[in-house]
Hints:
This protein is an alpha/beta fold. The protein has one domain: Ribokinase (UDP-N-acetylmuramoyl-L-alanine:D-glutamate ligase). It has helices at residues 38-48, 61-73, 113-127, 147-154, 165-171, 183-189, 195-203, 243-257, 261-276, 286-295, and strands spanning 2-6, 10-17, 28-36, 53-59, 77-78, 81-82, 88-95, 102-105, 132-136, 159-162, 178-179, 209-213, 219-223, 226-230.
Amino acid sequence: MILAVCLNFALDLTYTVDELRPHTTNRVTEVRSRAGGKGVNVARVLDGLGHEVVVTGFAGGRVGDAARAELRSAGLVDELVPVAGETRRTLIVLEDKGGEPTGISEPGPVVSAEEWEGFVERFTALTAGAGGVALSGSLPPGVPADAYATLARESAAPVLLDTSGEALREGVRGAPAIVKPNRLELADLADGDDPVEAAQRVIAMGPEAVVVSAGADGVLAVTPEGVLRAAPPEAVEGNPIGAGDAAAAALVAGLVAGTPWAERLADAVALSAAAVHAPVAGSFDADAYARYRRTVVAA
């Protein structure tokens, strides 16, 4: 089993419009509503790959109930911990004509110290039956900045960490097996123009490996097996929201399976590219994934 942690659980609303025009009324042509947050996106991709996955985090209020109901209807195991506050909503607007999506995210419910302590206990128990753990996304208000470091230390299973800002800076000190920043997050975490040297400085903080995502340029990884790079074989157009979560899913699956790093990276690039073809985060185009997987090489 893989445990997907989504502390800032959400209800994602995706609106499709012909063209997004500010300061006027925009008519929505399609609406999608489902449970979200980076950890949930990771869980959905893992489930689509055939892995047993459990989702945990915080959920509260009527929005939380609606998101949990959708999560269960999708066949995912729900081990979310109740909180007094209301689960957040996120809004994503896609244009039929293409281009970058527009996202608006609420901050999430305020989590009390008692609720956080209760979650840590529940998390520790869940990791006893896990082969790997994905810690993904932002922290809701009230959760300490070093939350991910605490969870990484308490976990009985190896951890992948995918977050940003202070949560990332503190989280690396928990010595996760893999840290997955993008180029900007890496630059914020470790000074330097050379990404390999910056990643090596991050490893000195505790992690075993650093995988740096670079969008269309693929990934760079500094690992116990050396420095590796991989890139998609062609330009990919579509919805990039969720592509990084698909890569995280591939990496944590490889962590559990113990596959060589070159295979993990090739899988991460192929799956993230296939996710761009899908209309919503947490999905991927299976045919595109199989096609990319045959051609992506990490070296």
